[in-house]
Amino acid sequence: MTNRTSGNTLPANAFVEDYLALLNERDEPITAPEAEYAGPWSVEARRQGGHAVLRPAEDVPYAAFDSVEIAQLAAAVLPGTGREKRYRLGKDEDSGRGFPVYRSGELAGHLRLFDEELVAALNVLDALLSSPHDFAWLLEAAGGLALQHVGRISMARATGKLK
Questions:
Q1: Other beta carbons less than 10 A from residue 139's beta carbon
Q2: How many CA atoms lie within 13 Å of 89's alpha carbon, on the beta-carbon side?
Q3: Mean pLDDT, all residues of the chain
């Protein structure tokens, strides 16, 4: 794949294939999964319909959806799926306190029930809040009406008018 800029044909990758092949013979570093999913991701309308989630300068989408909102949600959460999870649920109940929830290895709280889906959701939200670029996809997917309501609620909470 090549890109054309100012009449010049440029390679799609700045690194030559021989160099990449040499590196691929080695074990990947611990950061490889995060790099694979980090993006940045874009959402583009497809000629055949729907919307593609892909990296800039790539032709083959990672995902494609009928709805632009679903594509935006996928673009928002994809980077978090590759990073190390900050939240973990303990397997054994703590003497009547519930199941421990750890954040970055430190005890953060307890759950009455063994709720892996809640801990997975915490990891998704943690990843979104850690990246303004990805969080912006979520906000765009929410749409204007939802953001109007969120803005009013946020202002009311910030001013102490809503708890």
A1: 15
A2: 17
A3: 88
